Amino acid sequence: MYEQSYKFTFEAAHDLAENVKGETDHPYSRIHGHSFVVTLTLRAETLAPEGWIIDFAKLKAICESLRDRLDHRLLNAVPGLERPTLENTAAWIFAAAVADAPALHKVELERPTLNERVAFFAKD
């Protein structure tokens, strides 16, 4: 079994007011920002004839495209991310990347300053 990973970062804002309705003093009810770290991990039983799962240049381009869609954005305004929890955002990233990276196995999304991390896995 082979695994290949690529990591990228982005900065974005969001609010989770819908998650804390009625708690107007809750910090999630206000727009706030985070630094995010994303790791895409691909997995394959065998390698392509070129000797890789995917060309790292192609994987980097996929990640740069994702970064462009998320970086310095209000995540709530990104179509499909109206409730941008870490879990929902990881699933969104997976869905946005898997067509171009069919061997995608896992998306990890971190907010390192808060020591928080989630992972979204492909269905077996």
What would your notes on this structure say?
This protein has a 5-stranded mixed sheet. It has 124 residues and is α+β, with helices and mostly antiparallel strands. The chain is 22% helix and 34% strand. 21% of the residues are buried. The model has no long low-confidence stretch (mean pLDDT 94). The longest helix is centred in the middle third of the chain and has 15 residues, at 56-70. The chain has 2 helices and 5 strands, in the order E-E-H-E-H-E-E. The protein has a single domain, classed as 6-pyruvoyl tetrahydropterin synthase/QueD (Tetrahydropterin Synthase, Chain A, 2-Layer Sandwich). A hairpin with a 4-residue loop joins strand 4 and strand 5 (116-121). The protein has helices at residues 56-70, 86-97, and strands spanning 2-14, 32-44, 73-74, 104-111, 116-121.
